Amino acid sequence: MIALITGANSGIGLITAQSLAAKGFELILLVRSQAKADETKAAILAKTPNAKLDFFLTDLENLAQVKQTAADIRQKYTHLDRIINNAGYAPNTIEFNADGLEKSFVGNHLGHFVLNYHLLDLVENAAEGRIINLASLAHNAGKVERFFKKNYPSHTKWSAYGDGKLANVLFAKALAQRLKKATAYSLHPGVVSTNFGSNFTGILGFLVKIARVFFISPEKGAETTIYLATADFQELKNHNGAYFDKKRPKAISKSDVTAQNADFLWTESEKYV
Fold this sequence. Notes:
Blueprint: E1 2-6, H1 11-22, E2 26-31, H2 34-47, E3 53-57, H3 63-76, E4 82-85, H4 103-117, H5 120-124, E5 130-134, H6 157-178, E6 183-188, H7 202-211, H8 218-221, H9 223-230, H10 233-236, E7 243-245, E8 248-249, H11 259-270
Parallel strand pairs: 1-2, 1-4, 2-3, 4-5, 5-6, 6-7
Antiparallel strand pairs: 7-8
Helix pairs in contact: 1-2, 3-4, 4-6, 6-11
């Protein structure tokens, strides 16, 4: 079994990688630097000395780099059993890329979309291919009407993060409608004590620091991801496209989560592949 994981160098991503390696998965890990790759390799091998690891240095905000990484993966692999879109961050400042798109939206959604788009046939080639998106309850702060708005003037840190997490949920639903054999899911890992918010300054940074004592551990936060990656297909087959929390499918009340908006997200994201 081969699993590709983004953002595997810390927090939930690292715990997921360590767990899947221990279960015998061969891992393809996307990280942003050689230093992070070296640290991640050491952390996984410390627990599973015979783990099979393959690293690709990739910045998900750099779409040209993402496309090249997908091409490099295609040259080495004929199938992928799992893609776990784990990487993500909340911005401390609102910045826009050369296309006018808010950078965390690119990193949290669009980079993953481009990567997955170019690897979909490899997931379909697997016996029970699955794509798993790390979303968040913060999807409730997102609004589809802001997606792809150029240089949007009224973003806050929280609304920007919410947009990316809402896109993660909708991406899973769009994938579920388009994949022929493979399945897709999104999930809320819980409020986890990871690097989330460590880049925040000002009052928001202070509040995150105070609240951190109530956060759950990365090990606890990784449980739903690991469940979706390893559960028997019979347990999941009727939940394609669903949103999971605490290893169970959960209904979403957010009015923006519709099939129409999932199609809109797909159509607009395709312009960047």
